[in-house]
């Protein structure tokens, strides 16, 4: 599954606000080229919530275990909640840092930094993970939409 396919899928969800910081924007340089997805039908960045999914295209300070700096490596991150996290990874979100190889591609993994908050990560989603990635994105969007409309 290409990044373009994921972007097209998420952009098709209702009420989506996509932040895609680029060179010259008001966002920090480290975020340039990445994508952050919110449910925000009013078109404004929610002030008290995190995105429901992100795509990162490079290593960040303190988040290098996925080895995203080489060309054509990127990571889809999705907030799935703690219960779904445990189902998907077989681990508890708040468990000690496991011996997972966070650089393995096309595999649902605990997020290397935000696992305790119920985030999973998929480096270069492909044949094995494209269906589950799409399903998880839809559920994450729906969860955020439901929370926002309460």
UniProtKB/TrEMBL annotation:
<protein>
    <submittedName>
        <fullName>DUF6194 family protein</fullName>
    </submittedName>
</protein>
<dbReference type="InterPro" id="IPR045676">
    <property type="entry name" value="DUF6194"/>
</dbReference>
<feature type="domain" description="DUF6194">
    <location>
        <begin position="1"/>
        <end position="150"/>
    </location>
</feature>
<dbReference type="Pfam" id="PF19694">
    <property type="entry name" value="DUF6194"/>
</dbReference>
């Amino acid at each position: 599954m290409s990044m373009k396919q994921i972007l097209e899928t998420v952009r098709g969800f209702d009420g989506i606000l996509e932040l895609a910081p680029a060179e010259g924007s008001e966002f920090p340089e480290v975020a340039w080229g990445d994508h952050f997805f919110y449910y925000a039908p009013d078109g404004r960045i929610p002030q008290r919530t995190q995105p429901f999914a992100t795509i990162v295209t490079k290593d960040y300070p303190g988040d290098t275990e996925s080895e995203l700096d080489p060309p054509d490596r990127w990571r889809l991150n999705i907030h799935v909640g703690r219960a779904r996290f445990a189902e998907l990874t077989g681990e508890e979100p708040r468990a000690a840092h496991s011996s997972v190889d966070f650089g393995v591609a096309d595999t649902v993994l605990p997020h290397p930094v935000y696992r305790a908050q119920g985030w999973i990560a998929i480096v270069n989603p492909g044949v094995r993970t494209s269906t589950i990635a799409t399903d998880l994105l839809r559920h994450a969007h729906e969860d955020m939409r439901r929370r926002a409309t309460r």
